[in-house]
Amino acid sequence: MNEDISVSPDEINALYAKLQKEAESGGYYLNPDEAFVKDLLKGMLVNEKRYGYRSCPCRLAAREKQADLDIICPCDYRDPDLDKYGCCYCALYVTGAVLRNEKRISSIPERRPPPEQRLQNRAEVASGGLSKLPLPVWRCRVCGYLCARDQPPEICPICKAKAERFERFI
């Protein structure tokens, strides 16, 4: 299917401003290469017009929202990728170390499991409760924010507390 979906510069700029504001308020950072980021955002907006949701432009979408919930930006893999590699899969989001040029962005492996494994993982978590979570749950001791990832975030997206203010919850 070769459809021509247009996205205006105004749409891209509006999404860029919105994501920049959300990233800053949530303790995240957008890639400092604005032209690169705007190309990614154009792909997300095309996907939104095509499928009805902003799936990651760097991954193949199933064209069904329920099947693609894990790759709607920000995707489920953003935080683990930031922890391990300094950027998310598409490099839209980066860590403070990348911004300060203490770490370089490089390609990272795809961590999204195949469709049948994603369905199995969801079923296991749904049936087994919290004891079967695939990642530890971290709690911000300042505001109570909870997140499931290998390591706590650099900055709490709610109260801006640093990573050392998090404790392992589960």
Description:
The chain is globular. The mean pLDDT is 89. A hairpin with a 5-residue loop joins strand 3 and strand 4. Helix 1 crosses helix 2. The chain is built from 6 helices and 5 strands; from the N terminus they run αβαααβααβββ. The protein has helices at residues 9-26, 34-51, 65-68, 78-85, 96-99, 115-128, and strands at 29-30, 93-94, 137-140, 146-148, 166-168. The chain has 170 residues and is mostly helical. Strands 4-3-5 form a 3-stranded antiparallel sheet, with no helix packed on it. The protein has 2 domains: 9-112, Ferredoxin Thioredoxin Reductase (Alpha-Beta Complex); 130-170, Rubrerythrin, domain 2 (Single Sheet).
Total helices: the number is 6
The domain tally reads 2
The major sheet is characterized as: 3 strands, antiparallel
Q: Under the CATH scheme, which class of the largest domain? A: Alpha Beta
> Cα distance, first to last residue?
46 Å
Shape descriptor reads globular
> What percent of residues are in strands?
5-15%
Structural class: mainly alpha
Identify low-pLDDT runs.
none
Helicity, as a percent range: 25-40%
Give the overall pLDDT as a whole number: 89
Rg, Cα atoms, Å: 17 Å
Number of strands: 5
The largest sheet has its strands arranged as: 4-3-5
State the order of secondary-structure elements, H for helix, E for strand.
Answer: HEHHHEHHEEE
CATH architecture label name of the largest domain: Alpha-Beta Complex
What is CATH's topology name of the largest domain?
A: Ferredoxin Thioredoxin Reductase
